[in-house]
Protein backbone atom coordinates (compact mmCIF):
# COMPACT_ATOMS: atom_id res chain seq x y z
CA UNK A 1 0.00 0.00 0.00
CA UNK A 2 1.28 3.46 -0.86
CA UNK A 3 1.42 6.05 1.92
CA UNK A 4 2.29 9.74 1.77
CA UNK A 5 3.40 11.90 4.70
CA UNK A 6 1.47 15.10 5.36
CA UNK A 7 3.44 18.33 5.37
CA UNK A 8 4.39 19.83 8.73
CA UNK A 9 2.14 22.74 9.62
CA UNK A 10 -0.96 21.28 7.97
CA UNK A 11 -3.89 19.52 9.64
CA UNK A 12 -2.54 16.20 10.99
CA UNK A 13 0.88 17.29 9.76
CA UNK A 14 3.73 14.76 9.92
CA UNK A 15 1.41 11.74 9.92
CA UNK A 16 1.22 9.15 7.14
CA UNK A 17 -1.95 8.98 5.05
CA UNK A 18 -3.38 7.40 1.91
CA UNK A 19 -2.90 9.69 -1.10
CA UNK A 20 -5.94 11.63 -2.25
CA UNK A 21 -7.71 14.92 -1.74
CA UNK A 22 -10.94 16.87 -1.73
CA UNK A 23 -13.84 16.30 -4.13
CA UNK A 24 -14.45 19.46 -6.13
CA UNK A 25 -17.97 20.76 -6.89
CA UNK A 26 -19.49 18.81 -9.77
CA UNK A 27 -17.07 15.89 -9.45
CA UNK A 28 -17.94 12.31 -8.62
CA UNK A 29 -15.68 10.56 -6.10
CA UNK A 30 -14.27 8.42 -8.92
CA UNK A 31 -13.42 11.52 -10.96
CA UNK A 32 -11.84 13.20 -7.94
CA UNK A 33 -9.76 10.09 -7.29
CA UNK A 34 -8.34 10.13 -10.83
CA UNK A 35 -7.63 13.87 -10.74
CA UNK A 36 -6.01 13.88 -7.30
CA UNK A 37 -3.73 10.90 -7.98
CA UNK A 38 -2.68 12.48 -11.27
CA UNK A 39 -1.88 15.77 -9.53
CA UNK A 40 -0.21 14.26 -6.46
CA UNK A 41 1.51 11.20 -7.89
CA UNK A 42 1.56 11.57 -11.66
CA UNK A 43 -0.30 8.30 -12.28
CA UNK A 44 -3.38 7.44 -14.32
CA UNK A 45 -5.96 5.27 -12.53
CA UNK A 46 -6.93 2.23 -14.62
CA UNK A 47 -8.86 0.04 -12.15
CA UNK A 48 -10.42 1.16 -8.86
CA UNK A 49 -13.37 0.22 -6.68
CA UNK A 50 -15.02 1.59 -3.51
CA UNK A 51 -13.51 0.31 -0.27
CA UNK A 52 -15.11 2.10 2.70
CA UNK A 53 -16.72 5.47 3.57
CA UNK A 54 -15.93 6.91 6.99
CA UNK A 55 -17.36 9.91 8.82
CA UNK A 56 -14.99 11.18 11.51
CA UNK A 57 -15.04 14.22 13.80
CA UNK A 58 -11.76 15.78 14.88
CA UNK A 59 -11.73 18.55 17.50
CA UNK A 60 -11.51 21.24 14.84
CA UNK A 61 -13.33 19.71 11.84
CA UNK A 62 -15.41 16.89 10.45
CA UNK A 63 -14.31 14.77 7.50
CA UNK A 64 -15.92 12.19 5.25
CA UNK A 65 -13.40 9.79 3.73
CA UNK A 66 -14.68 8.13 0.56
CA UNK A 67 -11.91 5.56 0.23
CA UNK A 68 -11.19 3.61 -2.95
CA UNK A 69 -8.87 0.72 -3.67
CA UNK A 70 -6.69 1.21 -6.76
CA UNK A 71 -5.30 -2.04 -8.15
CA UNK A 72 -4.09 -0.90 -11.60
CA UNK A 73 -2.54 2.35 -12.71
CA UNK A 74 -0.21 3.73 -15.36
CA UNK A 75 3.02 5.46 -14.37
CA UNK A 76 5.47 5.40 -11.46
CA UNK A 77 4.10 7.18 -8.35
CA UNK A 78 6.16 10.24 -7.41
CA UNK A 79 5.62 12.88 -4.73
CA UNK A 80 4.88 15.76 -7.10
CA UNK A 81 4.03 18.08 -4.20
CA UNK A 82 7.23 17.29 -2.31
CA UNK A 83 5.56 14.73 -0.04
CA UNK A 84 7.61 11.66 1.02
CA UNK A 85 6.14 8.35 -0.20
CA UNK A 86 6.48 4.86 1.22
CA UNK A 87 5.28 1.43 0.09
CA UNK A 88 4.09 -0.52 3.15
CA UNK A 89 2.88 -4.13 3.41
CA UNK A 90 -0.80 -4.30 4.39
CA UNK A 91 -0.13 -6.09 7.67
CA UNK A 92 2.44 -3.44 8.68
CA UNK A 93 0.19 -0.41 8.21
CA UNK A 94 -0.78 -0.32 11.90
CA UNK A 95 2.84 0.46 12.77
CA UNK A 96 2.74 3.83 10.98
CA UNK A 97 1.45 6.97 12.75
CA UNK A 98 -1.72 7.90 10.87
CA UNK A 99 -4.75 10.17 11.38
CA UNK A 100 -7.49 8.61 13.51
CA UNK A 101 -9.93 8.66 10.61
CA UNK A 102 -7.66 6.28 8.68
CA UNK A 103 -7.80 3.48 11.27
CA UNK A 104 -10.96 1.84 9.82
CA UNK A 105 -9.35 2.06 6.37
CA UNK A 106 -6.45 -0.02 7.65
CA UNK A 107 -8.89 -2.62 8.99
CA UNK A 108 -10.68 -2.77 5.64
CA UNK A 109 -7.40 -3.20 3.77
CA UNK A 110 -6.33 -6.05 6.02
CA UNK A 111 -9.59 -7.97 5.54
CA UNK A 112 -10.46 -10.05 2.44
CA UNK A 113 -13.56 -9.44 0.34
CA UNK A 114 -15.13 -12.81 1.21
CA UNK A 115 -15.91 -14.44 4.57
CA UNK A 116 -16.87 -18.12 4.61
CA UNK A 117 -19.20 -19.42 7.32
CA UNK A 118 -19.06 -23.17 7.84
CA UNK A 119 -22.25 -25.26 7.71
CA UNK A 120 -23.74 -25.72 11.20
CA UNK A 121 -23.76 -29.52 10.89
CA UNK A 122 -20.60 -31.65 10.70
CA UNK A 123 -21.72 -35.24 11.24
CA UNK A 124 -18.95 -36.38 8.85
CA UNK A 125 -15.79 -34.60 10.10
CA UNK A 126 -13.53 -35.99 7.36
CA UNK A 127 -15.87 -34.73 4.63
CA UNK A 128 -16.25 -31.39 6.43
CA UNK A 129 -12.46 -30.90 6.49
CA UNK A 130 -12.06 -31.93 2.86
CA UNK A 131 -14.67 -29.40 1.77
CA UNK A 132 -13.04 -26.74 3.93
CA UNK A 133 -9.73 -27.53 2.23
CA UNK A 134 -11.36 -27.05 -1.18
CA UNK A 135 -12.68 -23.65 -0.11
CA UNK A 136 -9.28 -22.58 1.19
CA UNK A 137 -7.54 -23.82 -1.94
CA UNK A 138 -10.02 -21.72 -3.92
CA UNK A 139 -8.85 -18.53 -2.21
CA UNK A 140 -10.91 -18.22 1.00
CA UNK A 141 -8.78 -16.52 3.67
CA UNK A 142 -11.32 -15.70 6.42
CA UNK A 143 -13.43 -18.45 8.00
CA UNK A 144 -16.10 -18.38 10.70
CA UNK A 145 -16.21 -21.81 12.37
CA UNK A 146 -19.87 -22.26 13.31
CA UNK A 147 -20.78 -25.87 14.14
CA UNK A 148 -23.46 -27.18 16.48
CA UNK A 149 -24.68 -30.55 17.73
CA UNK A 150 -21.34 -32.24 18.43
CA UNK A 151 -20.09 -33.52 21.78
CA UNK A 152 -17.64 -31.09 23.39
CA UNK A 153 -14.56 -33.19 22.66
CA UNK A 154 -15.56 -33.84 19.06
CA UNK A 155 -16.25 -30.13 18.55
CA UNK A 156 -12.86 -29.19 19.99
CA UNK A 157 -11.07 -31.71 17.78
CA UNK A 158 -12.87 -30.49 14.66
CA UNK A 159 -12.22 -26.84 15.50
CA UNK A 160 -8.52 -27.56 16.11
CA UNK A 161 -8.21 -29.47 12.83
CA UNK A 162 -10.01 -26.66 10.98
CA UNK A 163 -7.69 -24.04 12.46
CA UNK A 164 -4.61 -26.04 11.41
CA UNK A 165 -6.04 -26.34 7.91
CA UNK A 166 -6.68 -22.61 7.74
CA UNK A 167 -3.12 -21.85 8.80
CA UNK A 168 -1.80 -24.23 6.16
CA UNK A 169 -3.38 -21.94 3.55
CA UNK A 170 -2.56 -18.66 5.30
CA UNK A 171 -6.17 -18.07 6.36
CA UNK A 172 -7.59 -16.83 9.66
CA UNK A 173 -10.37 -18.61 11.56
CA UNK A 174 -12.83 -17.12 14.03
CA UNK A 175 -14.87 -19.30 16.38
CA UNK A 176 -18.58 -18.62 16.73
CA UNK A 177 -18.83 -20.07 20.22
CA UNK A 178 -17.30 -19.86 23.66
CA UNK A 179 -13.97 -18.40 24.69
CA UNK A 180 -13.06 -21.87 25.95
CA UNK A 181 -13.54 -23.32 22.46
CA UNK A 182 -11.49 -20.49 20.97
CA UNK A 183 -8.61 -21.21 23.34
CA UNK A 184 -8.71 -24.99 22.86
CA UNK A 185 -8.85 -24.63 19.09
CA UNK A 186 -6.11 -21.99 19.00
CA UNK A 187 -8.35 -19.88 16.73
CA UNK A 188 -7.38 -16.41 15.55
CA UNK A 189 -10.48 -14.65 16.79
CA UNK A 190 -14.07 -14.75 18.03
CA UNK A 191 -17.34 -14.10 16.23
CA UNK A 192 -20.03 -12.55 18.43
CA UNK A 193 -23.68 -13.45 18.17
CA UNK A 194 -26.37 -11.06 19.42
CA UNK A 195 -26.10 -12.23 23.02
CA UNK A 196 -22.34 -12.04 23.26
CA UNK A 197 -22.27 -8.70 21.48
CA UNK A 198 -24.28 -7.28 24.39
CA UNK A 199 -22.18 -8.94 27.11
CA UNK A 200 -19.64 -7.17 29.30
CA UNK A 201 -16.73 -9.50 28.59
CA UNK A 202 -13.39 -7.85 27.89
CA UNK A 203 -12.42 -9.16 24.47
CA UNK A 204 -9.58 -6.76 23.65
CA UNK A 205 -6.66 -8.28 21.78
CA UNK A 206 -8.83 -10.66 19.75
CA UNK A 207 -9.84 -10.44 16.10
CA UNK A 208 -13.56 -9.80 16.51
CA UNK A 209 -16.48 -10.21 14.14
CA UNK A 210 -20.15 -9.66 14.97
CA UNK A 211 -23.54 -10.63 13.56
CA UNK A 212 -25.80 -7.60 13.10
CA UNK A 213 -29.30 -7.06 11.81
CA UNK A 214 -30.03 -3.36 12.40
CA UNK A 215 -28.52 0.06 13.11
CA UNK A 216 -28.45 -0.50 16.88
CA UNK A 217 -26.34 -3.64 16.59
CA UNK A 218 -24.00 -2.00 14.09
CA UNK A 219 -23.49 0.94 16.48
CA UNK A 220 -22.87 -1.46 19.35
CA UNK A 221 -20.28 -3.29 17.26
CA UNK A 222 -18.54 0.00 16.52
CA UNK A 223 -18.53 0.99 20.19
CA UNK A 224 -17.22 -2.39 21.34
CA UNK A 225 -14.23 -2.18 19.02
CA UNK A 226 -15.34 -5.01 16.75
CA UNK A 227 -13.08 -5.38 13.69
CA UNK A 228 -15.86 -6.18 11.23
CA UNK A 229 -19.56 -7.01 11.11
CA UNK A 230 -21.87 -9.24 9.09
CA UNK A 231 -25.18 -7.55 8.26
CA UNK A 232 -28.15 -9.71 7.29
CA UNK A 233 -30.37 -10.71 5.66
CA UNK A 234 -29.69 -8.74 2.49
CA UNK A 235 -31.53 -11.16 0.17
CA UNK A 236 -33.88 -14.12 0.79
CA UNK A 237 -32.21 -17.32 1.96
CA UNK A 238 -33.13 -20.99 1.74
CA UNK A 239 -32.79 -21.37 5.52
CA UNK A 240 -35.05 -18.35 6.32
CA UNK A 241 -37.27 -17.85 3.25
CA UNK A 242 -39.89 -15.80 5.11
CA UNK A 243 -37.52 -13.40 6.87
CA UNK A 244 -37.84 -9.70 6.08
CA UNK A 245 -34.85 -8.71 3.96
CA UNK A 246 -32.91 -5.45 3.87
CA UNK A 247 -32.32 -5.35 0.13
CA UNK A 248 -29.27 -3.59 -1.26
CA UNK A 249 -30.69 -0.12 -0.62
CA UNK A 250 -31.44 -0.97 3.00
CA UNK A 251 -27.98 -2.43 3.45
CA UNK A 252 -26.34 0.64 1.91
CA UNK A 253 -28.32 3.02 4.12
CA UNK A 254 -27.25 1.20 7.29
CA UNK A 255 -23.52 1.07 6.49
CA UNK A 256 -23.17 4.52 4.92
CA UNK A 257 -20.33 6.39 6.67
CA UNK A 258 -20.05 3.69 9.36
CA UNK A 259 -16.38 3.46 10.47
CA UNK A 260 -16.46 -0.34 10.35
CA UNK A 261 -16.00 -2.88 7.53
CA UNK A 262 -19.32 -4.70 6.98
CA UNK A 263 -19.94 -7.87 4.95
CA UNK A 264 -23.27 -8.47 3.22
CA UNK A 265 -24.85 -11.74 4.40
CA UNK A 266 -27.97 -13.54 3.25
CA UNK A 267 -28.41 -15.06 -0.19
CA UNK A 268 -24.84 -14.20 -1.18
CA UNK A 269 -22.86 -15.89 -3.96
CA UNK A 270 -19.65 -14.72 -5.66
CA UNK A 271 -21.71 -13.07 -8.42
CA UNK A 272 -22.82 -10.43 -5.87
CA UNK A 273 -19.30 -9.33 -4.94
CA UNK A 274 -19.21 -6.33 -7.27
CA UNK A 275 -22.73 -5.33 -6.21
CA UNK A 276 -21.71 -5.49 -2.55
CA UNK A 277 -18.82 -3.07 -3.12
CA UNK A 278 -21.10 -0.59 -4.83
CA UNK A 279 -23.46 -0.84 -1.83
CA UNK A 280 -20.66 0.04 0.59
CA UNK A 281 -19.79 -3.48 1.78
CA UNK A 282 -16.39 -4.91 2.53
CA UNK A 283 -17.60 -7.85 0.45
CA UNK A 284 -19.82 -10.89 0.96
CA UNK A 285 -20.23 -13.57 3.62
CA UNK A 286 -22.13 -16.78 3.32
CA UNK A 287 -22.58 -20.50 3.88
CA UNK A 288 -24.48 -22.13 1.01
CA UNK A 289 -23.20 -19.75 -1.66
CA UNK A 290 -19.54 -20.23 -0.71
CA UNK A 291 -19.24 -23.76 0.75
CA UNK A 292 -17.97 -26.27 -1.86
CA UNK A 293 -20.21 -29.18 -0.83
CA UNK A 294 -23.96 -29.67 -0.62
CA UNK A 295 -25.60 -28.41 2.58
CA UNK A 296 -28.65 -30.05 4.07
Element layout with pairings:
Layout: E1 2-5, E2 16-17, H1 29-41, E3 44-57, E4 62-74, E5 85-87, H2 103-110, E6 114-117, H3 125-137, E7 142-145, H4 152-168, E8 172-175, H5 179-185, E9 189-192, H6 194-197, E10 207-212, H7 215-223, E11 228-231, H8 247-255, E12 262-265, H9 273-278, E13 283-286
Parallel strand pairs: 6-7, 6-13, 7-8, 8-9, 9-10, 10-11, 11-12, 12-13
Antiparallel strand pairs: 1-2, 1-5, 3-4
Question: What does this 3D model show about the protein?
Answer:
The protein has 296 residues and is an alpha/beta fold. It folds into 2 domains: 2-101, Nucleoside Triphosphate Pyrophosphohydrolase (Alpha-Beta Complex), CATH 3.90.79.10; 114-286, Alpha-Beta Barrel (TIM Barrel), CATH 3.20.20.70. Helix content is 29%, strand content 24%. It has 9 helices and 13 strands. The chain has helices at 29-41, 103-110, 125-137, 152-168, 179-185, 194-197, 215-223, 247-255, 273-278; strands at residues 2-5, 16-17, 44-57, 62-74, 85-87, 114-117, 142-145, 172-175, 189-192, 207-212, 228-231, 262-265, 283-286. An 8-stranded parallel β-barrel has the order 6-7-8-9-10-11-12-13. Strands 2-1-5 form a 3-stranded antiparallel β-sheet, with no helix packed on it. Helix 3 (125-137) runs parallel beside helix 4 (152-168). The longest helix has 17 residues, at 152-168. The protein is elongated.
Amino acid sequence: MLLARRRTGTHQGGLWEFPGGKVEPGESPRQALARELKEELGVDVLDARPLIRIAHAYEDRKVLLDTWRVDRWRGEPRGLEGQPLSWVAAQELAGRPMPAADVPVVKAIQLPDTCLITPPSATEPARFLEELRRALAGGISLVQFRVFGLADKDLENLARASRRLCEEYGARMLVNGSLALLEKAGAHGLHLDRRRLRSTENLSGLLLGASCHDAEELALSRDRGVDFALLSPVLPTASHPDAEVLGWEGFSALVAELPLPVYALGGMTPQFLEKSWQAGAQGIAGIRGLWPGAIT
